[in-house]
Amino acid sequence: MRCANLNCRAMADHLLMGTLALVEFETAPDDRISHAAGGFPICIARTRYFWLCETCSRLFRIRRWNSSGLILEPQHTDGLRLP
Predict the structure, then answer these.
(1) What confidence tier does 70 reach under pLDDT thresholds 50, 70, 90?
(2) DSSP code for 77
């Protein structure tokens, strides 16, 4: 597994070194539910694990996952310059 930051080439030798997150694919509410015949509705949202290495997890957090891809946002926006 590689770091979810496309600008990083770190490999997940130890998943505990960094951040592992289960992220749900962003879909419209009506597309998230499947109605089984005669049964209860079932949530069918896609999920996937993403890993940020230790360095990237200090700089970024996962904002969302959609058809554009994984979107990261800076952890701190107080004038810190990010690489």
Answers:
(1) very high
(2) -
> What pTM was computed for the model?
0.75
Token pair for residue 55? 């360095």
Q: Which amino acid is at 9?
A: R
Residue at token pair 């592992």: 20
Nearest to 45 by CA among 75, 60, 59, 66: 66
The mean pLDDT of the chain is: 85
Scan for tokens 């951040």, then name that residue. Answer: 19
**Distance from C-alpha of 77 to C-alpha of 74, rounded to nearest angstrom:** 7
Rounded CA-CA distance 56/59 in Å is: 5
Q: Where are the domains of the chain?
A: 1-83
Q: Which whole number is the average pLDDT over 59-67?
A: 94
How many alpha carbons fall within 13 Å on the CB side of residue 13? 3
Which DSSP helix (H) or strand (E) runs through 59? helix 54-59
